[in-house]
Amino acid sequence: MPEPLFLRACWREEVERTPVWLMRQAGRYMRAYREMRRRHSFMELCKNPRLAAEITLQPVRAFGMDAAIIFSDILLIAEGMGVRLEYTRAGPRLEPLRTPEQVESLRVPDVSTQMPYLLEAIKLVKQKLGSTPLIGFAGAPFTLASYLIEGGTSRSFMQTKRLMFTSPGTFSELMRRLTDAVAELLNAQVEAGADALQVFDSWVGCLSPGDYERYVLPHMRELMSGIDARGEVPVIHFVNQAGGFLESVSRAGGDVIGVDWRVPIDIAWRRIGYGFGIQGNLDPMALFAPEHELELRVEEVLERAGARPGHIFNLGHGVHRATPERRVRLLVELVRRLSSRRAG
Ligand code: CP3
């Protein structure tokens, strides 16, 4: 059997059309998910391998995505490190961590004993998925550090930057521990059967280029070199709002760089270099535009990515919870139709 389209594109091999999947493709915009959510908390869904596997498969079955992403969350690793985590109506809440003692108390989790549900879910999905590849994932150290320091989602990242600027030693010890933990988590997912990995650096765009280089880049390089299956399992390095320092992001590594819509994808690709694949980058809000407008925007992304192999179509960030399912279906159909016409 030929290698799946998605994996071939990750390795920049020729493909007959552009593969497509969406960040946050399993979740609240889907009715099937909301039904399950009526009976179970988000945490219960994540920790029940049978249900997590089922949710993972929902968008693949409904829309024919070219890859599945395991249903889980980037913050669950915090529990394995010894930090209390809860999901509230207002978003995730963590016990804020700011002192050297708190950082010293963080453990590198043993994934097989502390997150067994995740590995079990991956195995179940692999049994049911057929040839569609499964993506395992983790939050990048900086994005995780911001949740740990702020105690939740932030707009200003004030506490994160305050710690970074006033106690760089403590901050970098935190980053070191997170880097080790994330490497463990990614390696365990590959062992369990993940065919590709994505690292989400969702909030790194709050940094200046200089601070990225100084406080994040060395840890990202360490993380990438800590992935045991590098070269065998493709790694997608997603950054949000990092248009000011994409060259540095590419120095951190990964096989594919994922970018948001604030930078034109052809320019992003030229800046990171054609030795990487590229993923993205439709504005998630384009799914709320009229059909004709959506088509033009899909066409534009495909046009800019051009005929060069190595493009994976995605949104520039997660699919919004209010998105109609039929627009997601339409998007997948458009990418298939417009990209095979271009190839032909
Ligand atoms: O389909 C998939 O992509 C797989 C599952 C997945 C979830 N979260 C499920 C989820 C993935 C890949 C994530 C990643 C994630 N989680 C990120 C990085 C991607 C991004 O969007 O930037 C971040 C920053 C988080 C942290 C997080 N988890 C927040 C801020 C929230 C609450 C607000 C929100 O966006 O929903 C969550 C909860 C969460 N994670 C839900 C889901 C389906 C919603 C839970 C619910 O109420 O049902």
Strand order of the largest sheet: 1-4-5-6-7-8-9
Unreliable sequence segments? none
Largest sheet: 7 strands, parallel
Shape: globular
Please count the beta strands (DSSP E, at least 2 residues each): 9
Strand content: 5-15%
In CATH terms, what is the architecture? Alpha-Beta Barrel
Element string (H = helix, E = strand): HHHHEHEEHHHEHHHEHEHEHEHEH
User: What is the number of helical segments per DSSP (H or I, 4+ residues)?
Assistant: 16
What share of the residues lie within helices? 40-55%
Structural class: alpha/beta
* Total domains: 1
- Distance separating the two termini: 22 Å
Report the CATH topology name. TIM Barrel
Task: Give Rg in angstroms.
Answer: 19 Å
Q: Please identify the top-level CATH class.
A: Alpha Beta
**Whole-number mean pLDDT:** 97
Ligands (ions, cofactors included): coproporphyrinogen III
Molecular structure report:
The chain has a single domain (about 5-344), classed as Alpha-Beta Barrel (TIM Barrel). The chain contains 16 helices and 9 strands. The protein has helices at about 5-10, 30-40, 40-45, 50-65, 75-80, 100-105, 110-115, 115-130, 140-150, 160-165, 170-190, 210-225, 245-250, 265-270, 290-305, 325-344; strands at about 70, 85-90, 90-95, 135-140, 195-200, 235-240, 255-260, 275-280, 310-315. The strands form 2 sheets. A 7-stranded parallel beta sheet has the order 1-4-5-6-7-8-9. It has a two-stranded antiparallel ribbon with strand order 2-3. Strand 8, helix 15 and strand 9 form a beta-alpha-beta unit. Helix 9 packs across helix 10, helix 12 (about 210-225) packs parallel to helix 13 (about 245-250) and helix 15 packs across helix 16. The radius of gyration is 19 Å and the shape is globular. The model has no long low-confidence stretch (mean pLDDT about 95). The chain binds coproporphyrinogen III.
